[in-house]
Amino acid sequence: MKRKLITAVLLINIFLFIAVSTVYSQTGLDLSAFKVCRKLCFDNNDFGSFIYGFDNTTLYSASVFPNGKLFSVNTTGKIYSANHSNGCSYALSEKSGKYYVTELDSIKGTSSVYSFGQMNNVYLNSFAFSDGKTYFIFTDSEYSYIKSYNSNRSFVKKYSFNGSNVKRLFTNNSKVYALLSNGSVYRLDANGTQYCTSINASYDFCNAGAGYIFSEVGTLTPLDGSSTSYRPSAKLNCILMCGGAELYSEGKTVYFNSSGEKSYKTGSEIQALFYYDNKVGFLNADYTVDTVRLSSFSKDRSELPTQSNSNSESKIIISDGHISQIKAGTTVKVFKSRLGDEITIFDRSGNKVTSGKLKTGYYAMISSEQYEIAVNGDITGEGNVKSNDLSALMAHFVGKSELSGVCLTAADYNNDGKINNADLVSIARNPYPSS
Question: Which structural domain, as residue segments, surrounds residue 383?
Fold first, then answer.
């Protein structure tokens, strides 16, 4: 009986938690080993700054900060996707119909494998691992859903979203999020799901520091539901929020916006940025990493135009297909100088507009993405705020007509996210000049 018990314990340990011995480490900041990876991913969180990727059967992970080391580990079966949480990278692999998650500590270099055996209808191209739990997407119902499991393979919780499929799982600062096909982003926790924000699900995005994601169309979106901002010149993995300040790169220059813009010029085109403990790292085209302290940045050029209106403290907001909080009277020329000349403006008929005032109902094309423009208080789309707008809002309140879309967005005159009597009173008392 004792022999059987010992054998059973050994089998369980082998099946559920397999220590991997084929781990290789490399000190320094030469990351040329990543050249073989099918895709590179990056994570900046409370534990440090990391880069990870994989080829068919090898997971690679490097801690740029805090210790500048590269590790790799062979996996069981073919790798389909990777994930990062805290200070560890994870790979989802499959062999002979069985699924495995390989953990590689990006700081220490230790590794483990968690076996989940055979499972049906698992979506292999996206998963997440955080705090000892693995999250899988399943596709065996009308709408896909998520199940979480402990590392010992025991089931924990099911997460479903009525009327929408799960498109992708990702982690940000060790929290797990689900992106739905309709663009909604939910955080997953022990109590269930919590809606966070919405993005355009048609485009790729990356983590942009703790609590932020950045889309390839230039939108920097907080995961706490606050307002989205826009950085059209930044590339994926080349923008980070660091303690409320923005760090981003353009070509060979890195900029840091905090109480005035500072910059640092590098000698190579930058592929990715890293930030931790007041140190900045940048991945060069040759897969080397240079690191500098923020104290090395200097004010060597005038500040760039910002998204703030010069006569208002409110910021121009880009969200849900609209560009809003634009002061009436703002010209096309001034608007483009603040958001970038690569933006093209069109009127309601689709004619290109290069001069004159912006009007509600105009739209902007930014990197092949279309956004409708809402000018504050310009409900009727005439480019100014006057009695016609007041009448339109009153008719909306009494039910004679109903505002919708960009016109309803423009009715939020005081930019508090609500359409109510306060907007009506503000338009009546303090309209912008009609000239």
Answer: 317-429
